[in-house]
Amino acid sequence: MKKPILLSILLIISVLGFSQSYLGWITSKVNFREQPSTDASIISSLKQGTQIFIVSIDTDGDFYNIIDIKTNTEGYVNKKFIKIGKLLKENEQGIFTPNGQSTSYNPEIEIFNNTKIILTLKINAETFSFSPHEKRTLTVSPGTISYRASAPNVIPNFGTETIEGNQGYTWQFYIVRR
Fold first, then answer.
1. Where a domain ends, among 54, 88, 122?
2. I need a surface site. Which of 1, 83, 114, 134 has the fewest CB within 10 A?
């Protein structure tokens, strides 16, 4: 009788998506594809030594979902051409700052790209692009969201955060050099 409960807990954990992201690099010249298939369109060819962000070590077939850090392009590469490096920690501090009540039940997030480069912001399954110094307000559903902010030559910032209804938020994207 206890096995079904344990199985249910394991299923819940896998559904919540505790996948981990890593830095890595390409081990030999390889096709960078739009989808996880050798039949998918080729975005470009990645050279040996290209630094990548591995979105998750969960594979789709034999492919990893990656971001080419240099170009900030997302796609897929066969896992046999990837060397996994440093585990990256999810941002646990949160990035969205509450700034008062909203007239809408759905939270509004004012985003400001305070850089000279294009920002890509993925919230759950939706991707947004922000021009340099662009400010825009996004409306999202309340609850826990996952996010990933990336830009060319920048290691992505990612995490999860709980966003409350009838609340406004702000976030300013800037680059920290370490």
1. 88
2. 1
Q: Is there a contact between 128 and 121 (Cβ–Cβ < 8 Å)?
A: yes
First to last CA, the chain: 52
Q: Which residues have CB under 8 Å from 116's CB, separation 6+?
A: 132, 133
- Asked if 104 and 160 sit in the same domain, the reply is yes
| Within a domain: 4 | no
pTM for this prediction? 0.84
Q: What is the pLDDT of residues 140-167, one digit of tens each?
A: 999 999 999 999 999 999 999 999 999 9
